[in-house]
Amino acid sequence: MLRIHFTGVDLARVRMAGRPDALWETILSFHRLRDRRDARLFGEWRTETRSRLNSETRLLGALIPSRGYFPDFLTPVEGQYGWDVGLDALRGIRADRLRRELTLVGGGAGAPLPQRLREFADGGTQQLPRLLGELRGYHRAAVEPYWTHIQAQIEAERAARGRALLDGGADELLASLPPMLRWRAPVLECDYPVDRDVRLRGRGLLLQPSFFCRRTAVTLHDPELPPVLVYPAAAELASAPTGADVVGRPAGLDDRRVRTLGKLVGHTRSVVLRAIGDGATTSELARRAGVSLASASQHACVMREAGLVTTLRRGNAVLHTVTPLGAALLKGGAVAS
User: Fold this and answer.
1) 303 in Cβ contact with 272 (< 8 Å)
2) Adjacent-strand bridge partners of 15
3) pLDDT value at residue 31
4) Of 115, 123, 146, 329, which is most buried by a Cβ count within 10 Å?
5) Residue 116: which residues within 8 A CB-CB, separation 6 or more?
6) CA 270 to chain centre
7) How confident is the model at residue 332 (pLDDT cuts 50, 70, 90)?
8) Cβ neighbours of residue 17 under 8 Å, at least 6 residues apart?
9) Are 222 and 93 in contact (CB under 8 A)?
10) In what helix (H) or strand (E) does residue 228 lie, and over which residues does it extend?
11) Planar angle of CA 40, 311, 145, nearest 5 degrees
């Protein structure tokens, strides 16, 4: 059990990450690649990723065990500002921190390091270019082709949590998180593989939803690092990832989806898509677009099938958000990366 202890100041400083964190998604996807569970969600992704993976990953395999601790330095807080910013922070890691965290991967002080980790530790920061190279190669194969889909899932999650925050403040936001996270003020309890207490001490908490995080939340081991809780995006978002090619058209955009996209040509659905804005329930969508509730629901369903809208159930209502593909259609441009 993980228990995160809040003060009043901490509640005022709870915040949602502004985007998916590419380093967290990359590291957590490495767990999913070796995990045989969730075949419906990740089975095709695993097959596609392995077929593209032609770079070395042995060092990553040593640094990221199938379960248990992996080094905090792999997911620097700067990663929330983008992939390149995160890699720059990782490149600047200090040698003493590198060795200390590698020791934890190996089982703690006094325990012999596995050979591959020992070689990495002996090389110190001079080994970082090798690590960065493996991370880049793996990210290109496993995460980058699916980034548009990941963004859509996290944007929908952010919209749902933002609604909770507006409706009832930080209390409502924390209470609205997925079921493995339980808000019992002033403590947020999380299912966790070890028993641990984290005291925020006025620093607040960054909530980082993740597509590749599953079943349990993850936090940093070092209590002195800025507090972050990476948690699985809501279960209703669990749709299998779809790739995107370099020009922005979704890979695997088959004839069925092309036909569905064709149905969207027309004034009414353009109005409905624009009416979703930063997120809308079906009743809000009907009111904004000036259509009936049944019509709004039907339009949202077609757009969801076309990959233009993501829908998340929240209580008795559903919340629709525009995907990057939908936003690109509205702007008449390519999907943003």
Assistant:
1) yes
2) 206
3) 93
4) 146
5) 58, 59, 62
6) 29
7) low
8) 80, 154, 158, 206, 207, 208, 209
9) no
10) strand 228-232
11) 55
Cβ burial of 302 (10 Å; 0-12, 13-18, 19+) is middle
The residues near 118 (Cβ < 8 Å, ≥ 6 apart) are 112
Q: Burial code of 145-166, b = ≥16 C-beta within 10 A, e = fewer?
A: bbbbbbbbbbbbbbbbbebbbe
Residue in this structure with the two tokens 């097959």, named with its chain if needed: 47
Query: Using an 8 Å Cβ cutoff, are 285 and 296 in contact?
Result: yes
Contacts of 277 (CB under 8 A, 6+ apart): 288, 322
Alpha carbon 295 to its chain's center = 32
Per the CB < 8 A criterion, the answer to whether 64 and 30 are in contact is yes
324 cis-preceded (ω within 30 degrees of 0): no
Q: Which helix (H) or strand (E) holds 222?
A: none
What is the crossing angle of helices 267-276 and 293-305, to 10°?
A: 90
Q: Which of 34, 23, 211, 246 is nearest to 134 (CA)?
A: 23
What DSSP string describes 6-24?
A: --HHHHHTEEE-SS--HHH
Burial class (CB in 10 A: 0-12, 13-18, 19+), 294: exposed
- Both structure tokens of 235: 């279960």
Residue 106 CA: distances (Å) to CA of 62, 93, 100, 274: 9, 19, 10, 52
pLDDT in tens, 259-296: 454 455 567 777 888 888 778 888 888 888 888 888 88
Q: Which residues pair with 210 in a beta bridge?
A: 232
pLDDT tens for residues 35-60? 888 888 898 999 999 999 987 898 99
The per-residue DSSP string of 280-299 comes to: EEHHHHHHHHT--HHHHHHH
State how far Cα 167 lies from the chain centre.
24
In DSSP terms, 319 is beta-bridged to 281, 312
Residue type (1 letter), 290:
G
Amino acid in the structure at residue 263: K
Distance, CA of 51 to CA of 29 (rounded, Å) = 15
Taking Cα atoms as reference points, which of 274, 242, 228, 336 lies closest to residue 45? 242
